[in-house]
Amino acid sequence: MRRGRPVVVVTVTTKQRSELEAWSRRPKTQQALALRSRIILLAVDGWNNKVIAEKLSTTPHTVGKWRKRFASAGNDGLLDEPRPGTSRKLSDKQLEQVLARTLESQPEAATHWSTRDMAKVCGLSQSSISRIWRAFSLAPHRSETFKLSKDPLFIEKVRDIVGLYLAPPDRALVLCVDEKSQIQAWDRTAPLLPMRPGQIERRTHDYARHGTTTLFAALDTKTGELIGQTQPRHRSVEFRKFLDTIERNVPAELDVHLILDN
Prior knowledge:
3 domains, alpha/beta
């Protein structure tokens, strides 16, 4: 005579099985749902609660719980139920207002929105703005750059430059040379790719510069010494003067390697 509680028998349709199999294969997200799906799939194959619990490193009580949920509500029974707590205080209109301002506008005299600035404009608290941005994966304060090289010798040049950094020749001086405008007005070479939910703002790595005063600088990659010089204009003439100054100050027995940061 069989003892104990009766085992809930579960059956699935073809559509339910395909959805359960998709849920069970999730590698990282919603692992709780993936575990519940595996429980039901093993239950459909005829395994009892104890064996299923051993296979999935859980408890027979948990297996029985999700058997009952599935038997009464199908796949929807495996989803998380609404948890108790205070109801949402922000309306859909307020959410839309915050999202639209974040994605489509820019604050006055600032490069990006902060939670405080957005809270003042929208009449909400700073914590509310922070929660909305986290919920929609928005990060106005972050920005990435990208560069698309059209140089056919790009790979060979990268190898040469990285080699000078990692293994400079004997009795060699490796300098990384760059120019920076002290006061500059510039435009990116391609249109900015705006921020959107789950994707931060992106812009090109290079830019068209309209500067006035230019700072030429060279960094000794071994000692960290910085050699700098300012010029009123940014032309090849001024740049060659700067390179000549560096070479005059380098001992004759050293081989000079210049890496130009473009």
